[in-house]
Write a structure and sequence with these properties.
Number of domains: 3
Number of helices: 16
CATH class of the largest domain: Alpha Beta
CATH topology of the largest domain: Rossmann fold
Helix content: 40-55%
CATH architecture of the largest domain: 3-Layer(aba) Sandwich
Distance between the termini: 60 Å
Strand order of the largest sheet: 1-10-9-7-8
CATH superfamily of the largest domain: Glucose-6-phosphate isomerase like protein, domain 1
Shape: globular
Bound molecules: 5-phosphoarabinonic acid
Largest sheet: 5 strands, mixed
Radius of gyration: 23 Å
Number of strands: 10
Length: about 450
């Protein structure tokens, strides 16, 4: 089995009856997703996506990635939320968070348009000086402020550097197939465009052009990524049994824990390369479930780093948390602790031991300590870190998220709460049409 879920460390907290009671709801949620008769059913394209995707466009993504690799030193993916996190998670997980510092034959990959920071844009502009640059602006709506501003900045930079004609060859756009200003603008300007499918929301779009183009530029094998997701889909959508189907089991366990009052789920990884994977997961679950006054709060940690900060809370703080650990069984990077004659630090008992072994023991010790402290642990393992397994894992969390959202009783595929800040920001910035709100908000800020 590609992915294993161990429930031994959560079982002490979940009775057989609780699991049996929720199983019917979980199976109904799975059925509803597949029958497309639940809430948000016009956003379920991600379920069959690993098999049912535009093969012609997929080939075009690979071709564009080759063109980008051959024509630039720096590639900037411009997007926010679901239009950025998946790509960054995969690149850092499979390559490295230090990807840009590695010796490699692919361009450095940067992510922009995911904040409103002048400093961060200025620094990236400075890095581009004297370098060849390509950009990929990614926005389903085509109207999101953060990437739109960054696109203006980098488009201006490219046009100054290469002229309008030259810049056209270096600008790639991923957006809606027909709607939105970005699509219209790109067609007029003659940029190569890729599609965010109608039925796939941002946070479920990592396996569309949204994620795949930046991922392919980094040298990751996107065929294998899709193969992994496809095999996960074949398993998780067909097995209607909570004990047999680990994806359903995960959805069931986290909902049982939530009903017990454990309202914060912490995703735990023991490798820094998974930090952005944690961020992708947090968006997936936070934006899908946090609505109507409900939902588990998705938090994340990288251990052992955070054992020296949040570890205290998890061990000993308010008993409202549980952990879901993602672990890669066989690490590809190894390093043994050196032997030291003087042994001043007393570490010779570890000399020759691979750090991965020590990291595993840290994990085992932490699991036992945390369950003793009252924090249940769900353990999810993949054998190796590779494209296939990561594709499988991405799909595991996506399908479990859809199921979980339905069990929770929300529409997991909308994000109405994201609009509130935008309206206030536009009003305060003086966007035409927001005059009344501006006055009212300014009054409140006095
Ligand atoms: O998951 C989502 O739908 C959001 O996080 C969006 O991806 C994010 O707001 C960016 O939107 P857009 O791609 O329209 O610029």
């Amino acid at each position: 089995m590609t992915l294993k879920l161990t429930d031994a460390y959560v079982k002490p907290f979940v009775s057989d009856k609780e699991l049996a009671d929720i199983s019917g709801e979980v199976l109904a949620a799975q059925k509803s997703l597949l029958a497309k008769d639940g809430e948000g059913n016009d956003f379920l394209g991600w379920i069959t996506l690993p098999d049912d995707y535009d093969k012609e466009e997929f080939a075009r993504i690979k071709k564009a990635a080759e063109k980008i690799k051959n024509s630039c030193d720096i590639f900037i993916a411009i997007g926010i939320g679901g239009s950025y996190l998946g790509a960054r998670a995969v690149v850092e997980f499979l390559k490295s968070p230090l990807y840009n510092s590695l010796k490699k034959d692919t361009p450095d990959v940067y992510f922009s348009g995911c904040n409103i920071s002048a400093q961060s844009l200025n620094e990236l502009l400075a890095l581009c000086e004297g370098k060849d640059v390509c950009i990929n602006v990614i926005s389903k709506s085509g109207t999101t402020t953060e990437p739109a501003v960054a696109f203006r900045v980098f488009r201006e930079m490219l046009e100054k550097k290469y002229g309008k004609e030259g810049a056209r060859e270096r600008i790639f756009v991923t957006t809606d197939k027909a709607k939105g200003t970005l699509k219209k603008f790109s067609d007029e300007a003659g940029y190569e465009t890729f599609v965010v499918p109608d039925a796939v929301g941002g946070r479920f779009s990592v396996l569309t052009a949204v994620g795949l183009l930046p991922i392919a530029v980094s040298g990751v094998d996107i065929d294998m990524l899709m193969n992994g997701a496809s095999d996960a889909a074949a398993r998780y959508t067909t097995i209607a049994d909570v004990e047999e189907n680990e994806c359903l089991k995960y959805a069931a366990l986290r909902n049982v824990l939530y009903r017990q009052g454990k309202a914060t789920e912490i995703l735990v990884n023991y490798e820094p390369y998974a930090a952005m994977f944690n961020e992708w997961w947090k968006q997936l679950y936070g934006e899908s479930e946090g609505k109507d006054g409900k939902g588990l709060f998705p938090a994340s940690v990288i251990f052992s780093t955070d054992l020296h900060s949040l570890g205290q809370f998890i061990q000993d703080g308010s008993r409202s948390v549980f952990e879901t650990i993602v672990s890669v069984k066989n690490a590809d990077s190894k390093l043994a602790v050196p032997y030291d004659d003087a042994n001043v630090d007393g570490l010779n008992f570890l000399a020759g031991t691979d750090l991965n072994e020590i990291n595993k023991v840290a994990m085992q010790g932490t699991i036992l300590a945390h369950i003793d402290g009252g924090a249940p642990n769900i353990l999810i393992e993949i054998e190796e870190k590779n494209e296939y397994n990561l594709g499988y894992l991405l799909y595991f969390f996506e399908f479990a998220c859809g199921v979980s959202g339905y069990v929770l009783g929300v529409n997991p595929f909308n994000q109405p709460g994201v609009e509130a800040y935008k309206k206030n920001m536009f009003a305060l910035l003086g966007k035409p049409g927001y005059e009344e709100q501006k006055k009212a908000l300014e009054e409140r800020l006095k």
